[in-house]
Amino acid sequence: MNRKIASRKLKSRCICCNKSFGKGDVYYHKRVVFQEFGEIIAYEYIVCARCKYVNERQSERQKRFIESGKCHHPITDVIWTTIAGEDYVKEPSHTECCICGKHV
Ligand SMILES: [Zn+2]
Ligand SMILES: [Zn+2]
């Protein structure tokens, strides 16, 4: 996630809180690329510094929960990873817990 400063008023708003950005405001830019049903999907979004901070606090809390070893992995999901040498082609890699991210 790249930290940027708006050089002019931005058309996009914060994806979390819908805050708009004026000239000189700090924002964070993220580009996401993935493949779904054979189509390559790329999108970009921006978040404000406050939402980024809140998200980080939440993931910090989540990290502590995981480290405490209390997760019983109630929800699992198959994780797809990019095939080596291919940019967007993916194959199923392993199953992991949606909550703590452990391989199960
Ligand atoms: Zn925000
Ligand atoms: Zn788990």
Written account of the structure:
- The chain is α+β, with helices and mostly antiparallel strands and 104 residues long.
- The protein has 2 domains: 2-61, no CATH class; 71-104, no CATH class.
- It is built from 1 helix and 5 strands, in the order βββαββ.
- The strands form 2 sheets. The protein has a 3-stranded antiparallel beta sheet with strand order 1-2-3. The protein has a two-stranded antiparallel sheet with strand order 4-5.
- The chain is flat and about 45 Å long.
- It binds zinc ion (2 copies).
- Residues 14, 16-17, 19, 47-48, 50-51 line the site of one zinc ion.
| Approximate strand percentage | 35-45%
Please work out how many helical segments DSSP would assign: 1
As a percent range, the share of helical residues equals 10-25%
- Run of helices and strands: EEEHEE
Largest sheet: 3 strands, antiparallel
Give the names of the bound compounds.
zinc ion
N- to C-terminal separation?
Answer: 29 Å
Q: State Rg.
A: 17 Å
Largest sheet: spatial strand order: 1-2-3
Q: What is the approximate shape?
A: flat
As an assembly, this protein is single chain
The chain-level structural class is alpha+beta
Q: Tell me the number of strands.
A: 5
Number of domains: 2
| Poorly predicted regions | none
Mean pLDDT: 90
